[in-house]
Batch of 4 targets.
Target 1
Amino acid sequence: MERPSSSSATVNGSSYTIPNLPSGTYTVKVTENGGCSQSKTMSVTNSNQQPVANFSYSVNGTTVTFINQSSPGTYAWAFGDNSNANNSNPSHIYGNNASYQACLTVTNTCGSQSICKTVTVGIPANAALIDVKDLSGATGAIIFVPVTIENCVTGSLVSFAGSLNISNPAVAVVSGIIPGSMSPQYNANNQTFSYFNNSGSGVPCGPGQILFYVAVQILGNQGASAVLNIIGTPLTIELGGMNNGTPSTVPYSISSGIVSVANTAKIAGEVTTYWGAGLPSVEVTATHGATSLMKVTDENGHYELPALTVSEMYRVEPKRIAQAENGLSTYALFAGQRFILGMEPLEIVSPYQIIAGDANCDGQFSSLDLFLIQRLIIGTSQDFGQCPSWVFVKAGSPMPTEFTATNVFPYYNCDTLMLTKDTISDFIGVKVGDILGHANPVAIVGNQTSPRNNDILQFSL
Ligand SMILES: [Ca+2]
Ligand SMILES: [Ca+2]
């Protein structure tokens, strides 16, 4: 080979390789054993050079700023605490006072090269510690990660600003900031926050105090995690406090948090009448396999079944035992009879009224049901026999708009779902026999009814 450098290679089969050539124009001369030769000119460009990895870094508390000194290519940083980055000159905040192996891999079309360095970080004793807590939530949930202050080196805090970062946006993303003792303004476009106290004296600074919460939406699959950081780009971190009556910056260190995807989720919801009144004391049971968990609705009809294992099928079913005579009236029987005769009474406008009318739960509203309701009104019987006092319909399940005495049946009386994330499951409660919707939603025992159009709800316990 001739200019700009010379090298030689032995043919291996019909090919040969001469690595690490600087860019330039080369003449390749092939000589056979007998001395005959032939030449060809070709050029080698820079882009085909092997990558070279190197970096330096600076430490400030637990914040490390990395300076890339590698050849061009794509960069993959592994900071040694299970977090990563792909930008050229990342800044990273470590969670603990410790040593970490930080590695950089640079890749180009010729291959890749890695280099690792030991980075030791520490939190100075004279600095306040801003601690982003660890928190997990189910896929789809929004969790509220507390940001607290420890080692409060100032009497009161007057300002705080910085930028939020999540190491892997496929796992979780920041959706906002919820006030604690501070109420920062937040810019979702660049994930920066800024707070200043407008009382003139600042907010008292106590150990463990929650400054604010970062609202984080969980997106990843269960078991995944990401680092939630307060970082100095694009908005520089600055903590301001009162120092002997003078506002000044406060030295700080930041401990990052881990947001992770939980392997449990909750089923929650509300149980209401079809006119929207909350139903308390409804037993809502979630069953999968041989296990079941039950919670009773509160005074507003809300329930919550927490910490259910995900990736399981659940059957959610409400049940309410309350007095059978609630909401019954002879007038409702006349309206029901006119409906059965096809006279379209004005009092019956909802398919739930037909479900209420089916007093023996046989899937149709008929004269026999009117007879059963009448027996309860006059005291010949105390219950509906094969029908419970309340039945339930899964909210949002399809209902015919042109309903008849039979086409609203069967209805969805439970919710069956594959639990993958926090899930809402609402139900409509229907008091059996209450054809006109007059049942008192809070009546559990005794004999009380209350017209729902009345502002005053009359009941006694
Ligand atoms: Ca932390
Ligand atoms: Ca019936």
Target 2
Amino acid sequence: MPLSESEALVVKQLRAMAPDLEAQLCRFVKIDSHTDHHEGVNALGWEIEQELMKSGLHTSAFVTGCSGQYLMARTRHGKGNKLMLLGHLDTVFPPGSVELAVVPDPQDPLKLMGPGATDMKGGLVVMLAALRALQDVGLLAEKSLTVLLSADEETGSPAGRDLIAKEAEEHHLCLVLEAGSPDEKGGSRFVTSRKGMARFNLEIKGIAAHSGVAKEAGLSAAIEAAHKIIALEALNDASVGNSVNVGVCNSGSSVNTVPEFAHLKIDCRFSDPGRGETLVEKIRQICQTPVTSHKDTHAVPELGLEELCGHQPFVRSEAIGRMAQRIVDWGKDLGLTLEEETRGGASDGNIAAALGIPTVDGLGVVGAKIHSNQEWLYRQSIVDRSCLLALTMMRFYEL
Ligand SMILES: [Zn+2]
């Protein structure tokens, strides 16, 4: 379908904004907004709040007590189809760990590199641009829109997941501004399914003893941990989309002491909700059942299992499939080649999708190597994805 006059106007306006959008991305990346650096998260939130107000939205910030502030914005008198845009302010880069700057990729001038630029400050720039362009042509004020930006998405949005769920339930469509990945033929992808995730901390307490003087009095927490790691790793089954990783394993205090403590951090992923429940139950059993014991006293290690914030899988429903096809078609009208992708990593989109809300993710900038110091995005994708989001919004409101 060719672009209507107003659609063409919005696209033209967004294309003219390209240098400003890159400059805005550079400013956002310079603000250190690691999840635990609450002042930085709030500082970025404040910048974005100013931009959202320029687009005529009224904003509110939510203090959670254990994260930076969540930011919400709405149109004042919206009618018709209700749309929610989801994003996050935080990044995974601890203060001082990387240089906070956006630089051209020395190997490829079409790419920009910067910590948090792709995941997902670029997505925030895309969102603000689309909103501004729609507002400028008078296409936003009467529409029903909620923007919700998490302050701790990189740890699973523990502080605001109830808020995200409550808001998502009030909307007909949820679009998520996480990054999409490039495809090999010059097109790009957006996300219509993601794995579910569960995380655990396991504390193991054995009995310390001098390894030379009284080795036999000890009960090694490290040996119990070793059994746990092998049993947990055996749960991996890629054929059904289950994965389990013991990503951190600490134990022992000195070379000549039987280790009294061990600490494991466990991450598991699953494609299917039912299989996920079974997998999580098996992990609990392994982690709560000691397998070693003291040979004389039969004392067993103490096991303390903590379950952290997880996500249900983001399953591609029929409604998600229909919306995805529309986005592919609408992308063609902009000259963009788009296809769907599945991702192993969870996002706040999982929260909305698990409630049955049609959710489409990966609509932010196009790039890869997120969470590493090689994180990059295609320059052109800032404008392309702004146009795609604006067009998707305009046509969704007409559905
Ligand atoms: Zn992200």
Target 3
Amino acid sequence: MKAVVYQGPRDVAVTDVPDAKIERPTDVLVKVTTTNICGSDLHMYEGRTSFEKGRTFGHENMGEVVEVGQGVEKVKVGDRVVLPFNISCGFCKNCERGLTNYCLTTQPDPSAAGAAYGFAEMGSYGGGQAELLRVPFGDHNALRLGEDAEEKENDYVMLSDIFPTGYHATEMAGVVPGDSVVIAGAGPVGLMAALSATIKGAAKVMVVDRHPDRLALAEQIGAIAIDDSKTDPVQAVLDETMGLGADRGCECVGYQAHDPQGNEDPAATLNMLINSVRFTGGIGTVGVFVPQDPGAKDDLAKQGKAAVDFGLHWFKGQTMGNGQCPVKKYNRQLRDLIAAGKAKPSWIVSHEISLEQAADAYKNFDSRAEGWTKVVIKPGMSSGEKAS
Ligand SMILES: NC(=O)c1ccc[n+]([C@@H]2O[C@H](COP(=O)([O-])OP(=O)(O)OC[C@H]3O[C@@H](n4cnc5c(N)ncnc54)[C@H](O)[C@@H]3O)[C@@H](O)[C@H]2O)c1
Ligand SMILES: [Zn+2]
Ligand SMILES: [Zn+2]
């Protein structure tokens, strides 16, 4: 089958790899119909993780079930399904508590937890930027979709990661109706946090970034855009909140946060939020941070450390939640909001492409080129078809 294969820093190619197949009785095999490029792929694409050459990317996947293992009871051939990026078992100590983001069964390293498709340090599972995807524990992991699955494909595919992840940021921050919320990052995840905060009834949603095209998407759903290349974002949030600070903050950037000139500082967004969220406020950090970052520019960051304003965070009595999103905790409810027409996460999709066009799309998305907000890959589309 054809797949998007990592060849080294900033180098992917679409090549032939062995077909994904049923390996265990509990597996489901999916023909991938849509698979997204994510900001998380970019940390790997840039060579800033241990992701191995020759592996396939793709953790935001949906498709049609084409084969099921002998032990699969619920999922049937022909079902349209969306797969959480987390691969989990459903029966380990963490899964039983709903923490499918830290499954102990599917992560092969006993000193670690959590697994994902096509992801560094999350097991050796193949990614879905390919024609076929093997889904372990299929009954548990596959979320089935209704008759509108094809019509709303670009909405439902966001259930694999970024919509639940944005929602998780607002959950960890503790967003309730009437809150003011500041979001660091207007990438796909930040925009989903803005959508989630709005769905939850936030009174005011502020999104900080410096890309006008991304900020414009935040404004389309009623958020206030704060361009940190033109204004001090902390002061802008204080001005919007009578000097008190926002009730809640969402970190949707991660360890490669940088200033508008491109100078990286892994503490930049955390400190912006600690300074702009009020005393006793909550912060949800879903942007990825890593325990080691050999590609970082200074020694502290190379060790996965960040100069966080912890004193101020403590002094203000703020709380902070961190980590990967447990997609299964939210995907069913968010699916039903999409089905009811009450959420339309596809408003951020900028490009629909074939697999063959992936290398070019990675380049553009990685450079945050104007207008490249979210790329959805359609493995069934031939490269001759016009991409939008
Ligand atoms: N926790 C999870 O489960 C989970 C799931 C998906 C993605 N992620 C992570 O979320 C993060 C965002 O993903 P994405 O797809 O939106 O990525 P993205 O890289 O497309 O978007 C990040 C945005 O942050 C902006 N930015 C950079 N530095 C900034 C700063 N100092 N202040 C304000 N904005 C700044 C960039 O301009 C960009 O628009 C990534 O780290 C990704 O790995 C985490
Ligand atoms: Zn993702
Ligand atoms: Zn588990």
Target 4
Amino acid sequence: MQTNFTLAQLADPDIAEADKILRACVHCGFCTATCPTYVLDGNELDSPRGRIYLIKDMLEQDRPATAEVTRHIDRCLSCLSCMTTCPSGVHYMHLVDHARSHIKDTYRRPLGDRLLRVMLAKLMPYPRRFRLALQAARIGKPFAPVAAAFGLKRLAAMLRLSPWQAPCRPLAAQVFAPQGARKGRVALLAGCVNDLLMPEINAATIGVLTRHGIEVVLPHGAGCCGSLVHHMGREAEALEQVRANVDAWSAVGGLDAIIINTSGCGTTIKDYGFMLRTNPVYAARAARVSALAKDISEYLAGLPLRPQGNAPPLVVAYHAACSLQHGQRIIRQPKEVLTKLGFVVKDVPDGHLCCGSAGTYNILQPDIARRLRERKVGTIERLRPDVIAAGNIGCITQIAAGTDLPTVHTVELIDWATGGTCPPRLRDHRPRAAMHRAGAAD
Ligand code: SF4
Ligand code: SF4
């Protein structure tokens, strides 16, 4: 694609990067067929190619974002399905990140939208604050249908997604010793939401790692990965969170890997090197952090895991989180590990399409998110699985809100099959005959 940035514009490294990305696009349109928002409504402006044109025009003219551009960029899930499809290697992620930051700097959103975004940005990345918010949401949860009836769709979506049970407490900084001789040492990103909503994910991660001789460090000072505010265009806040993590992980010596069990965070952490590339103090350390970052399934695929006979051969519908399959190109490892451990893994048809979770998307764009969830749950339920597994708490929450099937993190099944305990959501659910046939023991 031909671009027309001036030399003065190209002196800005972000514009120079955008120019490089735009020039790679040959506007073939292959990406439209795999874009969830285009698949739903067939609007070219809600396709990757359409959005690329809108961004190009906005940046070239150095214009403030308009309401129309903002609407179409807001509808993008950042699922990155378009990047997997694109034959020209267009780095859409960096382009849309830049566009979101430009929108944040130049467009004044309606008051309600602004307030909601500030609230999400100031609460969700901070576990203690978010815990209080979740406790308040429990009181309001029964009123979700009332909120929806009054047209308060985003409030209704927030209440529906919040859990009925009280949120747990976040894990403190500490070291989990390996069982037996130490064979490795990793840092774990505890995440902002995991411990509050599903502490079993971190427990399973720590359990399976320490049982296999890996020391797990939760360092002081590590917090939210920054992706939540990054995807809202709040670049200054995102970079502050990124730098704090780079400092925290760089201070821990002898790490073999930084383990992430929320794939949305993993995609961002693997991009820290790019995000801080122009910062002379942080660039090298950020690149090192990105190089060390590994999704838990990626790391476990390299360990000698053996089934211990305590998990039955359940049929698992494996939902590939977009951030894992498109953002990190981790496709086979989770399925191979589950299969090796005795589970019967089924791919979900149209698995390249997002479930509608996408960070805060299911709150900010509740209608599209609901339609994507219904489509996803329909394809999953047709497989008649015993359990749904995914590598991202956002997907788990989103899918679980639309089905009665138990939905767990992949690492919970891996932990169970290698000598850990049955995932609580499965234990409570007691799935069909397979569990009883196999006489499953916890
Ligand atoms: S597939 Fe790639 S090159 Fe083709 S229109 Fe989409 S982004 Fe551009
Ligand atoms: S990131 Fe996803 S929603 Fe956004 S343009 Fe690409 S395929 Fe479409």
